[in-house]
Amino acid sequence: MPISQKKRLERRQAVLQCARDLMAELPYDEVTMRIVADAAGVTPPTLYNTFTTREALLIEAMSEDVFKLTQAVADSQTRGLDRILYFLDLATNLLMDRKTYAQAIVMVTTANLTHVAAQLGQRIYMEILSVFTTGIEEMRADGEIEDWAETGPLAIRLNTLLNGVRTEWVAEMVSTEHVADATVFSFAAMLAGVTRGEARERCRALILDLQPGLRAPLPAP
User: Fold this and answer.
1) Any idea what the Cα angle at residue 193 is, between residues 187 and 196, rounded to 5°?
2) Taking Cα atoms as reference points, which of 198, 94, 201, 186 lies closest to residue 138?
3) Nearest partner of 74 among 19, 130, 123, 24, judged by Cα
4) Dihedral sign, CA of 79, 80, 81, 85?
5) Cα→Cα distances 91→8, 41, 97, 140, Å
6) Cα(87)–Cα(68) distance, rounded to whole angstroms?
7) How far apart are CA 49 and CA 41, in angstroms?
8) For a disulfide at 117, which of 56, 64, 83, 105, Cβ 3.0-4.6 Å?
């Protein structure tokens, strides 16, 4: 008897969760498709037929995480700068205790991807970009963005900032203790130059509050 659609979806979710759990415990190179298949209780051929490659499997797991975050932001009914800051908080907490998972994501998203994995990566990029775009447009509607600042380029730069802080954390240039503050500081520092009114004052307040804890000794000349 063919497997039912419900069972197929349940099996898919179980496989994705196994992949997340394994990549949160082990280095990416040690998490083979066979190990994931064994942990999920499926055969390697079934796993390959469903996800095609290990990279596609990881990006699919990540995409579900991101879609849950963006849905949570939408459900929160936050607006403008609050929308952006709330997303940053959720995204940081998602990876805080899963550093090897974050390392795997950085490795995969900076590598030459298969067509399937590249398509999934583009979906993730656009999903995150939509959060920043909506937040910026809401601030614009409230008179909190300078008229000369264009939404598209600004949203793209915010997305780049998010990836940059994550990469610095994985490379241990930013400690786990400070990654959340470093993320908010980076966003506040960029937005302070293009916002006005209450949003600008909030960005300045965040910078003043966070920068003492992020100070590092300057390199010797």
Assistant:
1) 100
2) 198
3) 130
4) positive
5) 28, 30, 12, 24
6) 11
7) 15
8) 56
Rounded to the nearest 5°, which phi and psi values hold at 145? -120, 135
Tens-place pLDDT, residues 108-157: 766 666 666 677 677 888 889 999 999 999 999 999 999 999 999 999 99
pTM (2 d.p.): 0.84
The enclosing H or E element of 85 equals helix 81-96
Q: Tokens 């290990």 correspond to what residue?
A: 54
pLDDT > 70: percent of the chain: 91
Q: What pLDDT does residue 112 have?
A: 62
- The terminus-to-terminus CA distance of the chain in angstroms comes to 73
Enter the tokens of residue 175.
Answer: 């400690």
φ/ψ (deg, to 5) at 96: -55, -45
